[in-house]
Design a protein that fits this description.
Length: 335
């Protein structure tokens, strides 16, 4: 896991080095489609990437984007009216039966299917109208790292081509180097706080919610740490009451309209003696984790890159083997 996460920038470099004509053609095709809605379909880490896609598409392309429930197709067998909709299926392996069933039903219902996949010979690739190959390379660790970051980069590249966002396209060219910088950042100040923790909230908002979701999953998966992801707005409801001096919170912020709210939350929690770990912003009383200055659309990628290094270190500190999580396997096939 450590070496694969460290090499995530290589996959993004491989993406950016090729497929430029295909990506531009895809962007043009989606402009012609002018989708009335976008539906994402994924599970696990790929579904966290779909959260990123939702916020990126809704803020850049201004098209309603929602997550499909695969069981509607794979279990209930219901076909919906998806005419003039873009259906984005995201999977590292491209082999899960429920995902493939959802894609088949979506095409039969009139959707245009875009697949993002890390396996070029996967059934998902053959089933889609359009494909973006993630180019992350073979991934042996059960916990997906480099394929997840490659998915976020591919989504940003796709949306930049769709919306003709030239500034985002230019910033993407810098992304691999920024990822290398993010990997080298020292988040070890968090280890002492989390080494013996029983619970953790990971908090983000907007584009950064996907980073919070991914970090929380990896804490559960590799560290045996019960971690839950929340929006900085949603956590103020019922979950807020659990936070105290023995219940830490990791807050992740990007430089956009959501950051002030994250800072207010961090300050309030710190005043209540909650152990607050904060990346992407700064408030008194919080343990500050360094971050890379970057456009808000790319900041979640860099925050996750730094978080992966912390998490794999924390797993070992807590006595776990991050490459062999209990009861899990690399490809999860659900129906």
């Amino acid at each position: 896991m450590f070496h694969e996460a460290a090499s995530a920038s290589a996959g993004v470099r491989a993406q950016l080095a090729g497929d430029a004509v295909a990506i531009e053609a895809l962007g043009a095709a989606i402009r012609r489609l002018a989708p009335r809605a976008v539906i994402t379909c994924a599970r696990g880490s790929s579904d966290h990437a779909a959260t990123y896609a939702k916020y990126l598409i809704e803020t850049r392309a201004r098209v309603l984007t929602a997550s499909a429930a695969p069981s509607v197709s794979s279990v209930y067998g219901i076909e919906q009216d998806l005419r003039q909709c873009l259906f984005i299926a995201i999977s590292q392996s491209g082999r899960s039966p429920d995902l493939l069933a959802s894609v088949a039903h979506a095409r039969a219902s009139g959707a245009t299917v875009l697949a993002l996949c890390n396996s070029e010979d996967a059934p998902l690739v053959a089933a889609a109208d359009h494909v973006i190959h993630l180019r992350a390379g073979p991934e042996q660790s059960v916990a997906a790292t480099k394929s997840y970051l490659a998915t976020l980069a591919a989504l940003a590249r796709f949306v930049a081509a769709w919306t003709r966002d030239e500034p985002l396209g230019r910033e993407l060219a810098r992304l691999p180097g920024l990822m290398d910088d993010a990997w080298r950042l020292d988040w070890s100040a968090a280890v002492g706080i989390l080494r013996n923790a029983g619970h953790l909230y990971v908090v983000g908002r907007g584009l950064g919610l996907a980073a919070a979701q991914e970090a929380a999953l990896k804490c559960k998966e590799t560290c045996g740490l019960h971690a839950e992801a929340f929006s900085s707005a949603e956590v103020r409801h019922g979950p807020f009451t659990l936070l105290d001096a023995g219940f830490p919170a990791l807050l992740l912020a990007q430089d956009d309209a959501t950051r002030p709210g994250i800072e207010v939350l961090a300050a309030e929690l710190a005043s209540r003696k909650v152990p607050v770990l904060l990346a992407g912003a700064a408030v008194p009383g919080a343990t500050l984790l360094p971050s890379i200055v970057a456009p808000a659309a790319l900041a979640p990628i860099l925050l996750v890159q730094s978080a992966y290094r912390l998490i794999v270190t924390l797993a070992v500190e807590r006595g776990h083997d991050p490459d062999r999580p209990a009861h899990l396997r690399k490809v999860t096939e659900t129906v």
